[in-house]
Amino acid sequence: MTDPASERRRMAAVLVDRGVLKSPRLRAAVESVPREQFLRPGVFLDEGRTWRPVTAAGTDPDEWLRIAYSVDSLTTQLDGRLTAGQVGVSVVGVPTSSSTDPATVVDMIEALDLAAGHRVLEVGTGTGYSTALMCHYLGEDNVTTVEVDPQVAARADAALEAAGFSTWTVTGDGLLGHPYRAPYDRVIATCAVRRIPYVWIRQTKPGGIVLGTVGSWPWGTGLAKLVVGDDGTADGVIVGRSPFMQARAQAMAPVAGDLSARAAYADSERRTRVSPLVLEKWMPAFLTQLAVPGTQFVRATRGDGSPLRYLFDPEKESFAEFLADGESWTVRQGGPVALWDDVERSLVAWQDAGAPEIDSVRLRVTPASHSYWIDHAPSLRWEHRIA
Question: What are the residue ranges of helices labelled H in the chain?
């Protein structure tokens, strides 16, 4: 039978080889915390259009350990309610909770620059595995974790207790932080947000770090690392790509219904300067969300099989519809905001600047606004006022 401790050591070695696991203290945590305990009752494995449930009780122990230490993200809940222990066959559903792949977890914890005595607020407990790593690193009294889903929070709390960590596990809306144990030296979020909530800044000590994913699309999101200043503002950089599920309170409902009816009345029509297909790539998608926040990108096809692409902003009641014509595209726009005009200006300026990657983006958070910019490209600046 496979020894779980040897699997943990093997996984730690893989993470070291990948260059994400650097701290000896964090390596000790990875080699000690049993990830398999945080995956109970089981996980869903992606089969393409369906999810196959795999439970600890119904799986060969060696196979269960292989899954647990596969260095993959593992879905633990579908549709906000369903766990692997509740079904016996493959099902369809939308992932709503998961155990993030250990490489991402470790990389984010390393980015916190933790030191002995630091107090951490974690937003999004999930399975509790990342919580346990930080408890091992800092001590359980220095970690507070908040989970919005009561079912998920209860399972994580039980797993943490079983692993020997009686930390501060809170059920609530992590977008509000947790003021009762503030101020914190570090805040880390394991969900994506449209913008960094200012309360996270307020609950962090001057000189402290806030780490969270910004963006609302399933792709094109960036990991923001901010340092809080003495004046209550925070400055930082997008340190890389970061694919996390959206915070429950901010998750957008998919655009449904007759898309052609939604785009029936256009105010303008023209050829595009940039193909809308670039929005399927990470950096252009991120720039689009900066240029027109709150907008959704929808892929569809005509009856003859030719591609259609849309941008919809339900709040501003605006749209851009893209029609393929051979290698070129026509855009039809309607509503108070010409969405594609704003996006295209940013994309052209980005291309003219040499198409810098996502880690070139800087940001500043104040009580009144969020500003993003790219150095050496004056036209690439976006300011989002907070109402």
Answer: 4-17, 24-30, 61-68, 102-111, 129-138, 150-162, 198-202, 259-262, 282-291, 339-352
Closest CA to 208 of 240, 224, 175, 184: 184
**Residue 183, preceding peptide bond in cis (omega within 30° of 0):** yes
Domains of the chain: 4-86+96-241 (3.40.50.150), 253-351 (3.30.160)
| Contact (CB, 8 A) for 154 and 179 | no
Q: Using an 8 Å Cβ cutoff, are 177 and 123 in contact?
A: yes
> Counting Cβ atoms within 10 Å, is residue 85 exposed (0-12), middle (13-18) or buried (19+)?
middle
Residues whose CB falls within 8 Å of the CB of residue 127, separated by 6 or more in sequence, listed in order? 38, 39, 76, 97, 98, 99, 152, 155, 156, 159
For residue 182, give the nearest of 202, 157, 153 by alpha carbon.
Answer: 202
Query: What is this structure's pTM?
Result: 0.94
First to last CA, the chain: 59
Cβ–Cβ contacts within 10 Å for residue 310, how many? 22
Quick check: 257 pLDDT over 90?
no
Kindly report, residue by residue over 190-242, the tens digit of the pLDDT. Answer: 999 999 999 999 999 999 999 999 999 999 999 999 999 999 999 999 999 99
What is the Cα–Cα distance from 46 to 255, expressed in whole angstroms? 24
Query: What are the backbone angles phi and psi of residue 262, rounded to the nearest 5°?
Result: -65, -25
SS3 (DSSP) at 95: strand
- C-alpha distances in Å from residue 239, one per residue of 56, 108, 257, 350, 363: 36, 10, 37, 18, 11
Q: How far is CA 255 from the centre of its chain?
A: 20
Task: Cis check for the bond before 41: say yes or no (omega within 30 of 0).
Answer: yes
Residue type, 387: A
pLDDT, one tens digit per residue, over 268-281 is 999 999 999 999 99
Nearest partner of 245 among 151, 148, 313, judged by Cα: 148
